[in-house]
Amino acid sequence: MRRTAAAAVTVAVAVALVAGCGVPVSVSSVTAPDDFDTPVPVPPLAPSEVAADGTRTFRLTAQEGTTRFLDGIETPTWGFDGDLLGPTLRASRGEQVAVEVRNELPEPTSVHWHGMHLPAAMDGGPHQPVDPGEVWRPTWRVDQPAATLWYHPHPHGRTEEHVYRGLAGFFLLDDPAAPDVGLPHAYGVDDVPVVVQDRNLDDDGTLDLDGGEVGVLGSLVTANGVHGGHLTVTTERVRLRLLNGSTGRTYAFGFTDDRTFLQVASDGGLLPSPVEATRVRLSPGERAEIVVTMTPGETVRLRSFRPDLGRVAAGFAMGANDEFDVLELRAADALAASPEVADVLTTLEPLREADADVTRTFSVAGREINGRRMDMSRIDETVEVGATEIWEVRNDDAVPHNLHVHDVQLRVLDIDGGAPPAALGGPKDTVYLEPRRTYRLIMRFEDYTDPAVPYMVHCHLLLHEDEGLMAQFVVVEPGAEVRSSTREKSAHADH
Question: Are 391 and 360 contacting, i.e. CB atoms less than 8 angstroms apart?
Fold first, then answer.
């Protein structure tokens, strides 16, 4: 069923190009809401308990529910501790945390802590499934800078559908030792997490998972699960923690009046200095924190403009021509004063090219990395703990991809030999890969080793991941043997 829709788009593109009959504006246009009168909910902070040994324990239940995206239509959805999405988990650097994940869904799932540095057995990837009625309790010590991370399912071959149905939530990290740099920080007041997602609904209100080459490009775009929502702003400055929680669509966020804002953080934490911008491009899985200045009584909308996808073929079929409003900001008639954002936000630990121990090359094409589809029984790369590595990654297709690396926060050294834009100057775990370009990424593998349990590296366009664009790597002690005896197996089972 789903591949029928993809094939139809492919045929339509080919016919249009061969016949020379022009390029349509879009094959994935977005339905504009009638108004923006619904308040956008702020995800609640998840309760937790701190044990005598200092472990902070959260509890999450994956469950079925229903959501009213449109008036009068009830849509079956999945959520954590509710009908859709999940609460925000929040912990501080240095804390030992545990999460008791209960699965009340009719099929196995998993929960991956996207962007978290933690042992492979706690990562929540396809090797840690949670069966219906079962509970999984990973535990680890938080040891990384303050950041906007998130959690979502990662079941083998089923990730796209589980996220699309609504299973996602924020995981915010704080660093009590970090200096105050003037960022808004009152959760739900001037510091608001916003997950943007798109979906299609069938006539009966059920979710439609049919998609094209990049997966679903939905006509219904939501912010924190609400279509046509507004956020009341009561302070001079508001910090939006933007997450692209979609399965296939790339956004280019800005504001309807083209105002300048400050990007202060990327996936894994603060940028060295604020970056003045009018747009921020986010592919699936990427995050950005922005600070917006408001004036009393004004209204402005967060908009996704036509995203620059690079030299893609048939961009009109990849969402390149789509633009639409996402969320309305409504400033109160009187705004509380906000501090100025500092000129220097943080000093990043240096990752120097000269210190790299290994350089690896990765070709991303079709549904393969280096010519091979994902095989759960095959270890593709072996990394020694303590190593600094450079990964040269090239998108050899004419369609969008991106790359998410588990366990580490990496840096972008260069793109086709040129310096990356300032917005890519901070810690990243997910990088958009423009077609026919080479990205050199540097990363250090610290702390955790496990010769038997791998981490994942994959495209976060979730259809691509599910269809095989994923590989596995283990981190081991120097000279250690990998326990897998199945390196020779390279067949990928169709899903």
Answer: yes
- What value, to the nearest 5°, has the Cα angle with vertex 404 and ends 152 and 277? 95
Cα gap 412→390, rounded to integer Å:
10
Q: pTM here?
A: 0.94
For residue 295, give both structure tokens.
């004036």
CB 256 within 8 A of CB 305: no
List the beta bridge partners of residue 277: 261
Longest dimension (CA), the chain: 72
3-state helix, strand, coil in the chain (%, to 5): 10, 40, 50
The residues with which 67 forms a beta bridge, in sequence order, are 75
Enumerate residues 6+ apart whose C-beta is below 8 A from 465: 159, 160, 458, 459
CA distance to 129, 183, 299, 333, 340, per residue, from 236 (Å): 45, 12, 13, 11, 10
The two three-digit tokens of residue 60, written as one number: 């999450």
Q: Buried (b) or exposed (e) across 441-467, using 16+ Cβ within 10 A?
A: bbbbbeebbbbebbbbbbbbbbbbbbb
Where b means 16+ CB within 10 Å and e means fewer, 37-72 reads eeebebbeebebeeeeeeebbbbbbbbebebbbeee
**Please, which residues bridge with residue 66 across strands?**
76
pLDDT values of the chain reduced to their tens digit, one per residue, 495 residues: 344 344 444 434 443 443 344 556 787 789 889 899 999 999 999 999 999 999 999 999 999 999 999 999 999 999 999 999 999 999 999 999 999 999 999 999 999 999 999 999 999 999 999 999 999 999 999 999 999 999 999 999 999 999 999 999 999 999 999 999 999 999 999 999 999 999 999 999 999 999 999 999 999 999 999 999 999 999 999 999 999 999 999 999 999 999 999 999 999 999 999 999 999 999 999 999 999 999 999 999 999 999 999 999 999 999 999 999 999 999 999 999 999 999 999 999 899 999 999 999 999 999 999 999 999 999 999 999 999 999 999 999 999 999 999 999 999 999 999 999 999 999 999 999 999 999 999 999 999 999 999 999 999 999 999 999 999 999 999 988 775 433 333 333 333
**Tokens 């995203």, located at residue:** 307
Spatial distance between the Cα atoms of 167 and 86, rounded to a whole number of angstroms: 7
Cα–Cα dist 172/49, whole Å: 17
- Calpha distance 204→223 (Å, rounded): 22
Single-letter amino acid code for the residue at 271: L
